[in-house]
Amino acid sequence: MKTKGWQKVFSFTFIQYVKTKSFIISTIIMALLVAAMFALVNILPVALSKNDDSGEIGSIDTIFNYERVYIVDETGVITDEGIAELFANGLKAERTDKSADDIVAQVAKTEGVQAAVVFTADKNTNGDIISYTQKTFYSPNGGNMASSLSAAMTEFFRNSNVKRLGIDPEAYAQSQIGINTRTIEAGQEELNVIAGMLHYIIPIIVSLVLFMLIFVYGNTIAQSIAIEKTSRVMELLLTSVRPLAVVIGKVLAMGLVSFAQFLLIVVVGAGSMAISAPFGIMGQIAPLLSNPELLAGGMANAAASGVDIGQFSIAQAVGGILEKFTPVNILLIVLTFIIGFLFYALLAALVGASVSRMEDLQAAMQPYSLIGVVGFFLAYYPIMFNAESLADGSSGTNSVQIFSYYFPISSPFSLPSAIILGQFDAVQGAVAVAILAVFTVLVAMLVSKVYEAIILHNGSRLKVGDILKLAKNK
Known about the structure:
The chain is an alpha/beta fold. It has 2 domains: about 5-45 and about 190-474, no CATH class; about 60-175, D-Maltodextrin-Binding Protein, domain 2. The chain contains 20 helices and 4 strands. Strands 2-1-3-4 form a 4-stranded mixed β-sheet, sandwiched between helices. α17 packs across α18.
């Protein structure tokens, strides 16, 4: 049999590679980075929200801690009654007739916590007011409250202007209620803001991780075969096993290593998320995830039930993705990874066997590298072009994305995220995997025809045309 002895090559290659210091160190570093990244993703939103809600920095309540807030009004909008109302509500506001420059200089020199708010009118050449400008100057000790003061004074000035024009402030407030607009492709899933972000981030991360695993280990296979061939180790190896058994053993061994690291990323990421859950956003949304009826009820029902809207949006987005992890979809993702790895690994093995000198390997790898980079960019860049659609709340995909799911060069990098996000159903995913499998079988047939002749070739580097000629003659 042409493949007799592949088990020996498989076990030898696998054991030798996993024992190397570079593999052990890189695996540990990768596991630590993945654990840290998932923990940060979980904990950081909660930590930031606590900082925002602490009332120590930027809270509206803190603006009352100013010892004095000087109002310089060059617009004529603010009345004495308005200043008195501010003072009655706890803000030590005081109108001043000093110039803006003088009062700002005074605030700058103060040892206390003071501020000056200057309002000016911007006019056109005819003298008509076209806009107002507000500047808030704070003393050296008042910076942590300045943003809140500025926001409060903007609202105060707007209300003062509305009253000056004889408009009921409450009616004006109702007329200024914002309108959220979205353009969504009919028939596509409607996404909230968090889900839109996930539909943008997940494909980019997944395609990058899969590209690194598939492409890096493909390069390792090519280098390993080229080193053994050029050092005459291959000649000794071929005395006990057939040439085709060498490539099968090496490809399967490196495939197992890459799949193990892929599982490591998944397990470490899930473990880190689970451990950090009590301290992060996952712990907060866990009760919501366990209540599918509440998630299905929509934002209005969640608000009526007293649920935090931000947490509900995250839970809705995460729950929508978790629903896609069915046994069939998981199987399709695993098959895509395995078959995609075999596709690129067999190509890499051909490249490694086509050279007789290590100096020629880099030039020989260029076509292989070009194929991989084209496949990666077909999976990566269409997501960026679809960002506007995702921002509007539509899960629709563009034509280049759809093409990348079926094209065997790019499908190993793009198809898993499409399945995770529900952009492909089980039937469509099976068709895409089948297309990838067919092309992988064609590459395997090419390898089986020409590998024995290539691995024994010595002399000038074989080019793609030379390999195809050998295949025709077989």
